[in-house]
Amino acid sequence: MTLSCVKTQLAISLIALLGGLSFTAMGGSLDKAQQASQMAQEAKWQNRPILHFRSAKEFNRFVTTTPLRRGPMSESDLWLRWQAALWAPTFDQTTLALKILNWLDEQVQTVVDQDQIDLAKARVYYQKSNLKQAESHYRKIPSSSDYWIEAQEELAWTSLRLNQHHQTIASLATVLAPVFSQIIQAEPYFLKSLTHLQICDYGKVFETTQLFKENFKSRIPALQQLAQAGTSPAAEKAIDQLMVSPFRLTSVGPGASQLPVQFWRDQIFQRHILHWRTSKSPGFRAQAIARLKNLAERDLREISSIVQKMHIVEAEVIQRLHMDVHLTDTRVQQGPQSNDKNQLKFPYTSEVWLDELDSYQARVKDCPSLRKASL
Amino acid sequence: MKLLKLLILAAFVVPASLSQAGDLQNDLGSLGGNKDILKRARALDPKNRLQVVQNRLVDRNFRLELAAQYGSIAGGDPYLNTDNLGAQLEFHINPRWSVGARYYSYSNSLSTEGQRRADSARAGREPFFDSDSAIQSYLGVITWYPIYGKLNFFDWSVAQFDIYALAGGGQMELESGNTGTYTFGAGIGIWLSQHVSTRFEVRYQGYEDQVYSDKRKLDLTVVSAGIGFLL
What we know:
- The structure holds 2 protein chains of 2 kinds.
- By secondary structure, chain A is mostly helical.
- Chain A contains 16 helices and 3 strands.
- Chain B has one domain: Porin (Beta Barrel), CATH 2.40.160.20.
- The N and C termini of chain B lie far apart (88 Å).
- Classes of the chains: A mainly alpha, B alpha+beta.
- At the A-B interface, helix 9, helix 11, helix 12, helix 16 and strand 2 of A face helix 1, helix 2, strand 1, strand 5 and strand 6 of B.
């Protein structure tokens, strides 16, 4: 078993264990009855259309046909309004998006999870630069949610924009915990290196770079094989597993580290699998494989973009080091310094305790303005 | 002809895609490649620190704890084996301090030497020995919890604990009558849930008993384990 497979297996075991403990649960282990119930729920999804709008005009026309009303609505009506809420920010109609999401909040429905609504609201507020509201909505997503890790990452970005570097680092300590390293995207690494650059912690910039290299060293070849050959053993196995299991990380197993990030949540991929489950037609299976290939290509493009950005960060660090910057001691400290008897403090080490995720706090110093710089 | 065109196109595309693949790997590998810069960056320590900060899982502010204990006693009267069953009422003022009251009921039996002496005395070979068994005691204690930590139970659960020191005094009822007693010791309290706790304790207890007509100072080492319920 390769090291990345071991790490993913550890992630899955940890996630399954955390699900049982209710500390954090991202797709905990399910028994057969729960699996069957989950798959029955998933079967309903295949009738839900995935909408695409090529222009604001097309979108506006759609919105006029799906007004918000009081009273009970069918699942398909709720779904269409949810799609409208997701597309509105793309056309900069954030007020409309919030209106629909608030309306969805008031409905008694099972079409859209509350976590999805909170996450969508947080993203709309982020787009509006209402960062405090965005932060509060990201924090609403519990650690048991499938969207928790994404929320943590986006919360880190929000904290960075609020100049709360200590909060950014604390959030990223959770996101980049070793147990999640094989199932997160490349962007958190860039965010971490950028944050460390902003607080002039140059050593940590390079540490982050090293971590990024280690974690993606084996993932990139696996994605490249999938992107070029159109399939891979891990892809074939994952698809066969998802034929008989619900769309969760625990269904996919350690092979997830060799496949596009969180591919089981891609709606187009899900539709192909759902059609295959009902019709058993191998054509849908082939389409699912083809979708995995597309997702692998997307992931590789993103990784390439992040690598370029990290080169830029590194270049900035090198320039600052060469410019003989005088770092004075008059740096403002960020971060809480409470002495509450009800709080326990433990050192941060590479060993991950399952109850420590999302409990990190950082004390950082602001980067001073460049004074007495000389070439 | 069409096939030839496809082959020519593939001849350009495949190496291009392979070279893109190779480029990404090379780009990744070149990150952090300058060892001198790396060394220089590491030498700067801005003293930023990351730590784990967690709330206590079990709130121990102004809470009562009722516990039962079993203790085994070493030292004391050499002719007796003594153990005790205890009940404890502890009032937690905050996670660092608590005050409590304890009651112990003692049970005594002859030790090996005591049995030998008794048998020998019955046989007339030696005089009978005198002992002053403990019957029960009442103690007031104050406890300080300066050290905390947590335990990983075989990756199944995590429980927080506190190591504590205690000191106190009270009254002990002996066969000969009442006498004062004092105690001090240390232990570990593991907070299993919001309402369940467990303690392991080692303490010293001293008192004076009366053998024949002489007063005698006894030093006991009490090792006890208990389970408690937090109200």
